[in-house]
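Entry 14. Structure prediction run on the chain below.
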Amino acid sequence: MVIEMPVLDGALLACALAFTPLMLALSYGEPMMRVVQAGAKRVPRLPWLLDVIVDTVRQDPAPGAAVLQGLFFGRIAPHRSERRRIETATLVIGHRRDPLHPFSDAGMLAEELPNGRLLEAGSIIELRIAPDRLTGEIADFIDQCWKPRAAGRRGRKAS
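Output returned:
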């Protein structure tokens, strides 16, 4: 597995602060959000980053509200005890200075997974604007996962 910017225990407060207003707007302000959506759909395509922001508003508000409610009131990741039993080789990518994707969550996840490895990105956007270093690390990780392993000697049971 390759997991980028996990959101676990360390992000709870920042996520609550950041997404509660949006969840309330999408849930209880759905009629008004539909008016905003209609206006956003009339905006022509913009440069990539700006269009990502406007495209968020172009979406139907009901599914977004459902996703946020599920994140707030459901489980966003397997419990710690379950994560400790996941034996799949995992590269966890994290970065510092981001309260929504705290580096402490990335470090904790890499330590909890028996075959986890932590890779520090320079920023939240490194993989998107200057991906060479990280994609090289990801490729090396995948190569290691697919590398043939020497067969161990196993005793055969007599028939």
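The chain is about 55% helix and 10% strand.
Filed with the rest of this week's runs.
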